[in-house]
Structure formats: structure tokens, C-alpha cells
Amino acid sequence: MDRPTALLRQLLILELIQAHINRELSRLKAQMRADGLHIIERQDGDMDVRVEFRIGDRYDEAVFMRKMLEAEAANRAKRTGMISR
User: Fold this and answer.
1) What SS3 state is found at 46?
2) Is the Cβ–Cβ distance between 71 and 83 less than 8 Å?
3) Per-residue pLDDT at 2
4) Which of 60, 64, 66, 77 sits CB 3.0–4.6 Å from 82 for a disulfide?
5) DSSP tag of 62
6) What InterPro entries does the record point to (predicted)?
7) How many CB atoms lie within 10 A of CB 21?
8) Which 3 state secondary structure label does DSSP give 2?
9) Measured on CA atoms in the order 74, 75, 76, 80, is the torsion positive or negative?
10) Where are the beta strands (DSSP E) in 34-85?
11) Residues 43, 50: contact at Cβ < 8 Å?
12) Which candidate, 33, 65, 34, places its Cα nearest to that of 49?
């Protein structure tokens, strides 16, 4: 069992990271609005994430491989110390 103070420290750090993520999400959404980028539809599949979007008056779509997104997210979390694997 971890020491209680270690668990409390981890909790406090994760809460601060969550606050940073919330601020970054707000900043990113504001940037999308400023750029005229709107998500029309998002489909989350087992293998990929498909996003139909509009930027200005132009429509397009993008497909992101789920494994690549998960790997990048895990890598970023590992570099920041959020996860230890």
C-alpha cells in the first residue's frame, strides 16, 4: 500500500493537471471558433475516429486512427508524469 501522503500528493497533482487541461480545452475551442472551424459530426469507432467538419464555407472530413491517438496520449501523459507505464 502506498503511503497516505503519497496518495494525497498524487490526487492534488492530478487535480491541478485536470485544471490545466480544462483551460487548454477552453483555449482550443476559442481558437476553433476564431478560425471558423466547426465539428459537424463525430463518429467514434473501434478502429478510428471520423470527424466531419466545416471551416468557413468549406466542408471536409478527417479520419484518425484510434491506436495512434491512444499512443500519442499515453506518450504525453508519460512525459508529464501522469502515468508510470
Assistant:
1) coil
2) no
3) 79
4) 77
5) E
6) YhjD-like
7) 11
8) coil
9) positive
10) 37-44, 48-55, 58-65
11) yes
12) 65
Compute CA 85 distance to the chain's CA centroid, rounded to the nearest angstrom. 19
Calpha distance 13→81 (Å, rounded): 10
C-alpha cell at 68: 495512434
Q: Which residue has the cell 483551460?
A: 23
**pLDDT averaged per 10 residues, the chain (length 85):** 87 90 96 97 97 96 96 86 62
Other beta carbons within 10 angstroms of residue 58's beta carbon come to 8
Cα–Cα dist 63/49, whole Å? 6
Rounded distance between C-alpha atoms, residue 44 and residue 65, angstroms: 10
Dig out the grid coordinates for 76 from the structure. 504525453
Grid cell locating 77: 501523459
CA distance 46 to 67: 9
